[in-house]
Structure formats: C-alpha cells, structure tokens
Write the structure tokens for this entry.
Amino acid sequence: MSEKDMNLKKDAKDEQLDSFRVDNDGQKLTTNQGLKVSEDEFSLKAGERGPTLMEDFHFREKMTHFDHERIPERVVHARGFGAHGYFEVYEPLTELTKAGFLQDPNVKTPVFVRFSTVAGSRGSADTVRDVRGFSTKFYTEEGIVDIVGNNMPVFFIQDAIKFPDFIHAVKPEPHNEIPQAASAHDTFWDFIANNPETAHMMMWHLSDRALPRSFRMMEGFGVHTFRLVNAEGKAHFVKFHWKPVLGVHSLVWDETQKIAGKDPDFHRRDLWDAIETGNYPEFEFGLQVIKEEDEFNFDFDILDPTKLWPEELVPVRKVGKMTLNRNTDNFFSETEQVAFHPGHVVPGIDFSNDPLLQGRLFSYTDTQLTRLGGPNFAEIPINRPIAPVHNNQRDGMHRMTINRGPVSYHRNGMAGNSPSTSTPSEGGYEHYTERVDGRKVQARSESFKDFYSQAKLFWNSMSDVEKKHITSAFQFELGKVQRKEVRQSVVNLLMNIDTTLAASVALKIGVQLPEAGEETKNPTPSDSPALSMMNTIFSAKTRKIAIIAGEGFDQATTEVIKALKKAGAMPEVVSDRLGPISGQGGQSIEALHTFLTSDSLLFDAIYIAGGKEGVNLIASEPDAKDFVREAYKHFKPIGAVNEGAAFLQQSLAIEDLRVPGIVTARSTEELSGFDNKFVEAVAAHRFWDRKM
Ligand code: HDD
C-alpha cells in the first residue's frame, strides 16, 4: 500500500466519526422530527399581510434552535483551530513506559490537535502577541491521552490557585473590556510586577515566540514534569516536546499587527491550506528524561513550572512523529466541542507534584460542565475514545448511551459484578505509589524562590536580533501602560535580569533606571543555544511567494516558478486582475490575487517579473509600490529581473540594489544563476542585516 493510500485509509477514530456524519446533498429538507417541509421561506400567516401564527411548528423549531446556537467560549484559549492526524513512535519505549501506543512503530494512533491563542475571544485575530496553546488528543486503544501544552516551555505562575488572578489580569480590563487579545495594558503588567515568578515566562512572552509564522512552525511543550512508568513499575521524570519538522519561525511585530487587519484568520487559513494541498504539518515527539535518583541534582527544582530543563543538560530524545493530514468536516462539532484534559492518561503515564499541574487536574473537567452543558461531554463524537466505555455513570443532560439492564452500581451480584475492574496486568490503571510525607502548609517551596536565573538564561541565549525584538516589545507593551508606577515597577524587575535591557526600556517609557537590581542567581549553563530561533531549521518548503506579474511577463518567470515549486515553495501570482495572464512566449499563469485582495504581508517573499508591458501594468496599480516596500521593510527575500528590477528600484527609491536578500538579474549572464540564488534567499527567510 502506498503512503498516500495509507493516509487515505480510515483510522479507527475516523470510522467512528462516520456514524455521526450527515450529508445533505440531494436530500429533502425536514424538521428535527423527520417531517418533510414544504415551505422554508414564508412563515404561516393569517392572511398575506397578517400576523404569524403560533402553530407554525417549523418556524418555531427553526427559530428556537437558532436562538440557542451559541455556547460559552472557553474561559481561556477561546480562539483556536484544529486538525486530525496520526502519531507513530519510532521505536518501542518499553524501558521507559508501558503505554501501549508507545510500543509499536507499526501502530498509527489517531490524533486531534487544537492550536489556540490564550487571551483573545473566539473572534479575535490570529497574529496577536500571545502564548499559543498546543493540545493533542491521542485516541489510543487503552483510552484517551491528552497533552495540553503551549508553544513555550514554562508558565507565568507556580501554583494553580493564582491562575484565575493571572487570567483576570491579562484578559481585557473588566470595567470597559479593553484591550482585546493584548497584554499591553496596565493590569497585565501590574500582575507581572507584583508576582516576580512571572519573570522567566515574561521574557518568552515578549520574544518572537509569541508571534509565530504558522502553527506548523512552533514548538510544543507539555510544560510540566510528568512521569513515565514501565512494566516493572520503575518511573522516570519526563518533559514532553513537539519539534516542528519545518523549524521554529516567527513574524515581525509590525507585520503581525497589520495582518490582524488584512487577514485575521492568517494562522487557521495557513493550517487549512497546508493540509488541503498535501503539505501535511509534521512534529517530532521528544522526551527529556531525568532518573528519579537525579531529582535533586539540578540547580533548579524539576517540579517548578517556571523552569525549563536546558537541552544541553538534558537532551531531547526524538521518539516519534505526528502528522496532521485531515481537516475537520465541521468547526463547531469538532474544534469547538473538543475537550482536553492534562489528566487524561493511560497506564505508563503519571503525574508529578508540580502544584500547577495538580490544580489543572481539577479545572479541565469542571470547565466543560459549563461550556458543553453537563457531564456527558465525553459522548460528543470528537471526545469519544476508540476504547470501549463501560461504567455505572448514568443520566445527566444530553445522555446518548442507552445503558441496558437494572444494574448500575458496583459491587453487584445481579450482573456478576460487571463491569468489573482490571488488574494492572489486564490494563487497569494503577497510580504510581510515590511516598509522600509532610506537614500541610500553604507556602512557596524554598526551591521555587529563584525567579531570575532562567530569565537571564533565556536573555543570554538570544541572538542580537532577537534581543532587539524583545527590547522593542517591552518598549511597546510598557509604552501602552498608563500608570507610571506600573511601568517603573517592571523596569525595576528587569534590572534583576539584565541592566542593558532595563536601561533601553526605561529610556523609552519615561521612568527612572534604578541604581541596582536585587542580588540574584546566575544560570548554569549561562546560555542555551537551543533556545535561539536562529539555530532552528531553515528551508524554502511551503514558503509562500508572491509572483508579481502582468500581461506580457517575460520568459524567466516560468523558470522561477518551476524552481520555487521544485524547492517545495508555494508561488502564487499577484496581478492587476484575477484570471489567466499570458507571457511573452505565449505561456499562461493564473493570477489568484490582486493588489486589492492581497498584500505582501501575507507572503514570505516576493518576485517581480520582467517584461515591459507587464511591468507597466503593475506600475500603474496604486498599491503595487507599497506591496514591494512592505516586503523590504519586513526583511523578506525579494527577487526581480529586468524591468521588474527597475520597478523594484523605483519602489524602494534606492540607488543600489545590492542589499541583503535582494536578488536581481538584468542580463542573460545574471539570469543563468538567478533561480538558485533566489531559492536560497527564500530558504533563508529574513535578512536582518538589511539597513532601513
Ligand atoms: Fe489551561 C484551556 C494549556 C494552565 C485551566 N489550557 C487550555 C488550553 C490549553 C491550555 C492549550 C486549550 C485547550 C483546548 O484547545 O481546548 N493551561 C495550559 C498550559 C498551562 C495551563 C500549558 C500551564 C502549564 N490552565 C492552566 C491552569 C488552569 C488552567 C493552571 C487552572 C487551574 N485551561 C484551563 C481551563 C481551560 C484551559 C479553564 C479553558 C478551556 C478548557 O480548559 O477546556 O480549564
């Protein structure tokens, strides 16, 4: 069977969903009672100009359903987008865990993934500065496993009891519900300043990681320390990672703000299109493993969710791969109704005492009771396990299952005590028998009190460009904070991380630079190259290239398009009008966009075709020059040949086109190596040393 056929073959989850799918094609319209409807445009009235009659049951039913179409959005992570796929483990992980789906490389476990932003409402823009959620539901034969993570490896707080406070601070302010999907406001920064355990995550949040180019180009982290337990009962501490095969990439801040207006669905469209065009997003599954006996051998507490395990100290072992290969049939039924829970585990996966994780174990079922309207949400098709479900839970709102027989209690004699429990060797879940001793206390552990060393580690690990972006992110965010005392407190806090950073920020936001910060611990190691996005994977694959061409474009264009496609890039033609346009040699390309319907913000690179006639048409478009200038301003690769190069020069108003990331050809000689050079530039993504 070919790889394609394998992918097309329905997995167990897909088959299960089949029994719920409904197609209306060629069907008769009916009421919910199955009655065929003869009229769906006019309600029943007493006389043509008379009042509507209550007995119009179809009107009543249709309107009632409509009136109740909305459910509460998620209290956090309201805006999200999901897709189906599968997971394969590379080799049996028997030495670490007895989890069945991590044993056999020939098993494809169906998955559903939902990516999200945190703070914004369901209708907010995709490209805001925010943490991204990265939730994966594995439909394993032993039951559901959920990894409910983020695209950043640490969190703002250490104890779940502070979660409502933190979320109240970051969400729009309650008196006027402003600002939407933004952390650049007083209450967020007041929380940061008064809760210094946020320092490390604050650095991540202000970094380019908060501006992903695509959901396909983000890392995912389980954040907490979990346990894997093998068949002998031996446990290891682990952290879960998702590593995108395309590398980790970001947008630039100016771009994200403008995209939020031009295409608020930028990330969901990107994911949808990638799957529709067969560019299936792939993420390798990674594990960091620490032996139980090494628990105290680090200069941070491995239970503290504001700390990462530097990859240079604890390497990430890649143990499997997830491929997303199927879009949803219905957003509401699948993406909106999916319910994740970090407590959904199978034998071989267990928890740690991380107090943030412990609190999450309560919250996720609880929130679904309001959001999905009762305790039977596990019966909603997207949430059903593929493993059989038998227990004595009964009734409640929207019960689907018809449980037969008089017995709904354990222990019973009447049904031979079934459904019966399973021993661990039969697959029954057994909690890890960790020994716990201690007094009941409400306090922060001493080992959780180092707030700054890993914030410094993160800062030290950034390249100059990344540092520049973080600095201007602070200048922007704090620049929006109205209360001077809040701005001052954040700069005081920054002094504990890096003086240069604190000074650059203080300068722009009208506050004093304190003489010194607190005495704080330095990290070991002092930096971690794995944290810089400069050390990620770069390629031209799936990068979107705007081919700017008008009627009468030159021959070279067809070759450039071919070369880009060969490298896996996605060239799309932008012209003065939609539809087919012809080149000098009679070749035809289809324009999918005009300067009105698109913008270079929505592309990774641009190419300007030559050909006098075509370039004249493009040049007469009022928005064409801005299109080119924005690409230049955002450090993107720009290719241009012959008259196209002249138009580029005109648009940028610069004398010399020998600028990083600009590839031009104005002679037959230059044209010969052009395609390769341009593809190389596309694969490099951005040219940060371009002078503005
Ligand atoms: Fe949470 C949703 C991730 C801490 C309470 N969380 C939610 C989602 C993600 C995360 C990805 C969206 C799930 C989806 O797509 O449906 N949350 C995290 C991470 C955390 C974290 C990585 C820290 C490491 N969360 C956290 C705490 C609490 C919650 C400490 C409360 C004690 N989170 C929730 C919630 C949500 C949620 C209120 C809202 C919707 C939902 O659960 O299903 O229960």
Summary: The longest helix spans residues 355-371. The radius of gyration is 28 Å. The CA atoms of residues 460 and 527 lie 5 Å apart. DSSP finds 19 helices and 17 strands in the chain.
